[in-house]
Design a protein that fits this description.
The complex is a heterodimer of chains A (about 100) and B (about 150).
Chain A lengths: L1 H72 L4 H6 L18
Chain B lengths: L23 H88 L1 H7 L5 H4 L23
């Protein structure tokens, strides 16, 4: 009889511990899910901005490529490209060394 | 259930001859009840044990779910920090450069009609870089920022 009571009490205690654990885990799960759901709109907004930035950069890349291509036909644009670091500064001509005797 | 009271041997005046003859039907009923009680107790234990196993499984499942969701939240926060840093870097470094460069190219195109046809494909700086002007970003931890587009 005592053995039976001990088994019942042990099983009851295990059930209680498991229920407490499940409740705690449920609480943590809901809290984490809420955190994710709260962050989601902000993440979507930032993703949209990143898309716009990528688009703007692609436009700029194309514009720079066109300008560099144009500079091959008309070097008048070169100072502008150099000023914006699109083209490297033309190196100054090295003065010719006097011929060694 | 009304069971007949057996005479108490400790009560004065007890006489063993007072014990009524054992009722076999009653004894059989009591034995049956005992057996049923044992059976019921056993099933109760089995049910409790099953409940413990089910709850253990549920706990394992919930633990995994919590871990996954927390990792998702952590990744999301990290990505958001990186993105807001990149947007800030874009706003600080790239936008002024892009606006200035585009404005200068358009100005150049006004004096060079052959280049104007090329620049006609691109929008004026007033509406271009502003399209991605960032809103106030959330508090961000230090994160690697995207390199500004500059050569």
């Amino acid at each position: 009889m005592i053995k039976t009571t001990t088994i019942t009490a042990s099983l009851g205690a295990l059930v209680m511990v498991s229920v407490i654990g499940s409740t705690s885990l449920c609480f943590r799960y809901v809290r984490s899910l809420n955190a994710v759901l709260t962050l989601q709109p902000e993440a979507l907004r930032l993703q949209g901005q990143m898309g716009l930035i990528d688009r703007n950069r692609a436009i700029m890349r194309a514009m720079v490529a066109d300008a560099v291509e144009y500079s091959k036909r008309n070097p008048a644009i070169d100072p502008l490209l150099v000023r914006f670091d699109v083209k490297p500064k033309p190196s100054a001509p090295v003065p010719a060394k006097p011929a060694a005797r | 259930m009304n069971l007949p009271q057996a005479p108490d041997p400790l009560v004065p005046g007890y006489n063993s001859t007072d014990v009524p003859p054992a009722d076999s039907t009653l004894q059989a009923k009591v034995a049956g009840l005992d057996e049923s009680l044992d059976h019921l107790r056993r099933w109760f234990h089995v049910t409790l044990a099953s409940l413990v196993f089910m709850l253990a499984g549920l706990n394992v499942y919930l633990f995994n779910q919590v871990r996954i969701v927390r990792r998702q939240a952590f990744d999301m926060v990290r990505q958001m920090n990186e993105m807001s840093e990149a947007v800030k870097a874009y706003e600080t470094n790239s936008v002024p450069w892009m606006d200035g460069f585009t404005a200068e190219l358009h100005k150049f195109a006004e004096t060079h009609p052959d280049f104007a046809s090329t620049m006609a494909r691109y929008p004026k700086p007033s509406g271009q870089a502003k399209a991605a002007a960032p809103q106030p970003a959330p508090a961000a931890a230090p994160a690697p920022a995207a390199a500004p587009r500059k050569k």
